């Protein structure tokens, strides 16, 4: 039973990692075959893994602890990168109708 729990624990980490990466637009959604981006969902998956790390402290093997820590580090770096992309993105050009209104208002 112990081996089965070890496998399930690793699967849980990998599932949350994949959800976070898909939510950051880094992986295609295998169901829709599209890139989808929702940083709120990504953050939820990362927070779930953070909670697992805290709640399982002292109960993981060295390998499990290192693996979870590395996955979290990678996800957090990618998340910060995506958040910074949003901050650096130039403001969208006004739509053609909006631009006409701005030109006529001058």
Query: What is the CATH class designation?
Result: Mainly Alpha
Number of domains: 1
Radius of gyration: 20 Å
Largest sheet: 2 strands, antiparallel
Share in helix: over 70%
Mean pLDDT: 88
Count the strands?
2
CATH architecture: Up-down Bundle
Identify the overall geometry: globular
Structural class: mainly alpha
Strand content: 5-15%
Structure notes:
By secondary structure, the protein is mostly helical. It has one domain (2-90): Methane Monooxygenase Hydroxylase, Chain G, domain 1 (Up-down Bundle). It has four helices and two strands; from the N terminus they run αββααα. Strands 1-2 form a two-stranded antiparallel sheet. The protein is globular. It starts with a helix and ends with a helix.
Q: What features would you highlight for this structure?
A:
mainly alpha, 9% strand, 106 residues, Methane Monooxygenase Hydroxylase, Chain G, domain 1
Summarize the SSE layout with pairings.
Elements: H1 2-23, E1 24-29, E2 34-37, H2 39-55, H3 62-88, H4 96-105
Antiparallel strand pairs: 1-2
Helix pairs in contact: 1-2, 1-3, 2-3
């Amino acid at each position: 039973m112990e081996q089965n729990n070890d496998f399930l624990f690793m699967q849980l980490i990998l599932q949350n990692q994949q959800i976070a990466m898909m939510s950051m637009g880094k992986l295609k959604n295998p169901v829709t075959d599209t890139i989808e981006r929702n940083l709120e969902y990504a953050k939820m998956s990362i927070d779930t893994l953070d909670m697992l790390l805290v709640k399982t402290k002292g109960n993981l093997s060295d390998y499990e602890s290192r693996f979870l820590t590395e996955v979290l580090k990678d996800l957090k770096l990618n998340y910060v990168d995506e958040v910074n992309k949003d901050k650096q993105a130039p403001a969208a050009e006004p739509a053609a109708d909006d631009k006409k209104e701005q030109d006529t208002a001058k």
